[in-house]
Please model this.
Amino acid sequence: MEEVDVEPTTTPIPGIDFTQKHLGFVWGPGDILVYETKYGATGAASVDQGCPFVHVVRKDEDIYSPILRKLFNESHHIFVGLQKIKEDVPSKNKKSQFVSISKNYRSVIRACMEELQQVAVSTRDATLATQYGNQVSILLAVELIWNLCEVLFIEAAPAGALQLHLLDWVRLHKADVDEKAREVLQSESPAEHPAYWDVAISYVLQGRTDEARQVLVKQASLQPAARLMFKLLDSLLMKMPVYNPGGNQTLTEFDVKWRHWREECDRCLQDNSFASNRHLEAICKILVGDEDTLLEYKELLGTWYHFLVTRLLYSHPTVKPTELHYYAQSSMDMFLETRSGPEPLDSILLAAFEFDIHQVIKDCSIALNNWWFVAHLTDLLDHCKLLQSHNLHFGSNLREFLLLEYGAGLFTHHSLWQLAVGYFDHCPEFGRVYLELQIERVPLDSERKALKVLRICEERQMAEQVRSICKIMAKRALRNDRLGSALSWSIRAKDAAFATLISERFLQDYCTPAPSYREFHKLYGDKRFVEAATLLLSLMTAKIAPQSFWMTLLTDALPLLEQKQVIFSADQTYELMHCLEELTAGKTIPNTDHPMQDEDVEVTKVELLRLALARNLAQAIVKEGTVDG
Amino acid sequence: MDCINAKFVSQKISKTRWRPVSSASLHQPDIFATGSWDNEDNKVSIWSIGEHGVSNMDDEFEGDPQLLCEYKHNGDVLDLQFLDQERIATASSTGAVTIFRHHQNSQTLSVAQLWDRAHHYPCDDAPCTGLVCNSPEIVTIGEDGRINLFRADHKGILRTIENADSSTIHAVTFLRTTEVLTVNSFGQLKLWDFRQQSNEPSQILSLTGNRVPLHCVDRHPNQQHIVATGGQDGMLCLWDVRQGTMPLSMMEAHSAEMWEVHFHPSNTDHLFTCSEDGSLLHWESSTSSSVPSFLQGGRNTSAMSRSTVAPGDGNQSLTSGWLSGDSSKGHLETTHMLPSQTLSVNSLDVLDQCLVCGTDGEAIYINRESSDEIESRDCGCTDQAGARRCEEEPGCTN
Model:
């Protein structure tokens, strides 16, 4: 048995004092039912009245958030699209498809986050606002991790391009710089704004040299004496080489160019060119990747991974994926030295930088309170063929395990159960079993809903579930005396026995579909024999009456056959004979369930009918021959 | 170029309906109502795609539906229709029929009239599966096989046809002011004339030997004897209730239940269907050469001459493309209007150049055509009877 990764958290249940009473519980698909037993802490049964409630304890609360529902619905669509990507697409095209799918997932997360942010601001309820705020920060972290996984695992950028992607990653998640910059630049005198240097330096820290230069110009115009110094820094920023992965330049050429530029920056520092302005000097120190200077701007960097990316930008812009983990670990150690230790998010990111995908997924599963993220990310990584070798001690594999957990959670939801079907469909090993077990628990409130559930089962050839749903609906209809509905449900189930049962009740009740039979008796009573005979025949040949009723109809034909005048024509007689043969054809083997007397009566009836039919046929042929002749 | 605009609304949408546009105004429809189903709390909601919306966010994409107001609805909304500009009638899975009033000044909804257990079993609830309004009259149908006739301003039930059907009635439409047509789970169409006192249908039509349940029905806007139905097998059928008991034409449309079929109200060469299979189809029948393109989508356009299965009656008094049994003459073009989608499209409504639909994927899709793509309003009526009716049809250029 494996050790637990983290100590489980305790969830107090209001109204139950577990120090006094023992608790009992039952597992459910997504919930746990908890109740108070009559046993006390000492183990002895107590006499006093216990708590009369059963408590529903739910692990996944997020599924009930109306805004996150949009995330579940939109991502379901992306998920289904991803499963349709063909195996035979060349791997190069596949990669770009996977990257774009990854971006789609992220944009859904972002949309959700923005909406949550809006409602968090606009709500007046403080607890709700906090709850929304928490969800926003969880989604922020989720998107941050996803984006990093996209860069490192899916995009799998090589040296050079890797640095550019990481820079984009940091810029996207540290967007408050732009907000601050706008505030500064729109103020009356930007250069004197208290946040002026913060903005300039933040831009440099993110490698956004153009923006940094635009900000620095404001200050330069105010200090004509320092004009040359500003001009020098401006030219350094302008000349900073940026690798272009699509261009002609090789990585080595870029590296040489970059080293030259860095030497130039270094010389300026040696010359004390910026000694008279500490801000400019600091910027220049950043440009040469001076770690102590970088750490002075911890507040502006905010996180150790921003520090890592800035450090790489100005010290190792051609960092290889395999070297990342070393810089990541040291950046974290340097940045977090004063603090207590890494938070879960830090460990997850570090695991990603170490390319330990399984650790990332495991830590995320523990840290996050829903399966949405790990299930979708794992599925995507699995499609990228990054998770092949890993087997679990239970279930099938990691991807399927997580998808099933996520799907099972959806199935417990009143409305989202439909989404789960799409996930189970793509779990080859246990998906079907999960679906079979879960679909039967969906309450069938109306025929409309039953039809939808039935469609899901029929499309997947789940014969047993189809039968059970139809039977439930047919029985319900029967209970409410809705024979037509009952019949159509049993026809849909292809449940012949039940359909026959209902048909017979129909005829007993002389219900609506049998007006023709009533009409037959009326015609017979009125002595309109020819019309009655035609109607009787059509009841059988047009299959209006069920076969179980044919014997009754044929017996009804007997008096017509025995009339003096010929009523059934030769053709009609042939058809009657055909009906009789069809009816008796399946009954050659004596039915042991029935007593022998019944069998005898049947046999006699059939013999009588055969005789009457033969006699009628002879008369009809003679009569028709006479008329025509 | 058309644009499809999707909005996720965190509830499964069972019905979408445009608010009628007053004939005096030249405005495009901009308000619609939705009903939800299968949620713990279901709602009737009013949305705006125009300036009515409380557009406090200036970066909001123009045309993105804004919620104006909503009201809790007991049970699933199984049908919903505007009675007039202000009132909405709904059918509930609890068997209740409700009239909501939309107060446009305060943007609120209230219950104006409620008929609890309008449909019921002796000791259980029976869902009200559909309704049709012809203000002030409302006809409702249910799983209990009843047909009820209400007046919006009248508390009681005007008329009930008990046990009108032994199977479930799935949809209803008015043929004339006194005559309705129902479709049931036995694949039958039944005509009911409220002038007659008998509780029997005046006519029954059905596909012989084929008991595929029918789920939806719509009447041709100008030719009252022409109706379109959609079935459980996704088949689209067109019927002439005056002649024969068999459909005039049958077309394979969807791979699962067709939940709704709608003729374009003013441009009747166009028809729209949606289905459990997650697709929304636009059908364009082109018999005349100068058919204005309407709601023309750019996606998956597949021109096909659907070979239509017509019964032997060759007496085609109509030249409408829907009914021509001859596939060489009838040319139908079908277009998928939604990006590939997996969950059911439960409802659609089309009015002028605007289409709205709602899905089990909890999204509302809006399609709006730029106005220059429609040159004239063609009611598509060419026969004598149709032409007469055209005179009463404002906006028809025939």
